[in-house]
Amino acid sequence: MAYVFDPLPTPALPVQGDDRLFPVHRIYCVGRNYAEHTREMGHDPDREPPFFFQKNPDNLLTTGEFPYPMASEDVHWEIEMVVALKSGGTKIAVEQAMDHVFGYGVALDMTRRDLQGVAKKMGRPWEVGKAFEKSAPCTSLVSASDVGHPDKGAIWLEVNGTRRQEGDLAQMIWSIPEQIAYLSGLFELQPGDLILTGTPAGVSAVLRGDVLRGHVDGLPELDVKVV
Ligand code: MN
To answer: What is the pLDDT of residues 155-195, one digit of tens each?
Structure first.
């Protein structure tokens, strides 16, 4: 059957040491998964559990140049580890969750904080703040067979050579298997789904010309210039 116009290409990420691409289905993002970041955003991690929102698969960016987006004057960085799923399902048990993981990467959950703030205040959805073009700069993926399943290790972001965010994967409120199990009780997870696993404290605004370096122990460095 023909299409009425040519479909856009499937969003995909490179895989380290593999000629093949990882085709992306959905991007789930966990909000407020590190207690210190929850507090800096004005919330109490002991009273409000993490939650999920989504970005669009075609919001991924792998060129290393983040174009300052339209309609905002307060665009924030959030460094996050990415979990990439090779299989999915519903109602996945925590004990089985890691069987679905293909590998890991590093991404920025770039956020139009001013638009998100208005949406929060008015009880509206977050898409305008979170799911805009090129809002998810991301590294190549590394397969779990190469890197294992990181559940501790440094995660940090440097902006123009200065450390601005710093944490440890072990500080996540919901562990990766807990995130997968929880999500699979709300949505049918599919091969190609990505999960951005939340950001440690230290979020703030980028300026044009800023050079960002994101790091998670054992994974590729994420180098992004704001243009
Ligand atoms: Mn985030």
So the answer is: 999 999 999 999 999 999 999 999 999 999 999 999 999 99
Q: Which residues surround ligand 1, an ion (CB under 5 A)?
A: 78, 109, 199
Domain ranges of the chain: 12-226
- 65-66 and 222-226 as β-strands: parallel, antiparallel, unpaired? parallel
Q: How far is the CA of 88 from the centre of ligand 1 (A)?
A: 22
What is the distance in A from the centroid of ligand 1 to the CA of 87?
23
Is residue 97 exposed (0-12), middle (13-18) or buried (19+ Cβ within 10 Å)? buried
CB 107 within 8 A of CB 80: yes
Residue range 12-226, CATH number: 3.90.850.10
Whether the CB-CB separation of 91 and 111 falls below 8 Å is answered with no
Whether this model's pTM surpasses 0.90: yes
